[in-house]
Amino acid sequence: MNFFFTIDPEGRTVSLREATNAFPGYEAYAKVDGDPSVVLFRHRHSLDPASGLPGGADQLISAAVDV
């Protein structure tokens, strides 16, 4: 998997560009100071382990949240 996070402290946003395999599922959260965690993304797997693990990270995802 490959992740690229961008954090904007003045605008209080977190964004993400990533590429993953089709297995397993992935998720990420953002949290600032003592505030509750915010879901950045959840990506369920689309293939079984034998089919989803081989090969490169070809499942593209992008997300952004205010924190």
Please count the beta strands (DSSP E, at least 2 residues each). 5
Main β-sheet description: 3 strands, antiparallel
As residue ranges, the low-confidence spans are none
Trace the largest sheet across and list its strands: 1-2-5
Percent strand: over 45%
SSE arrangement, N to C: EEEEHE
How would you characterize the overall build of this protein?
The protein has 1 helix and 5 strands; from the N terminus they run ββββαβ. The protein has one helix spanning 49-52; strands spanning 2-8, 13-20, 26-30, 38-43, 59-66. The chain has a 3-stranded antiparallel beta sheet, with no helix packed on it. The longest helix is centred in the C-terminal third of the chain and has 4 residues, at 49-52. The two termini are 24 Å apart.
Topology of this protein?
Blueprint (H helix, E strand, L loop, with lengths): L1 E7 L4 E8 L5 E5 L7 E6 L5 H4 L6 E8 L1
Antiparallel strand pairs: 1-2, 2-5, 3-4
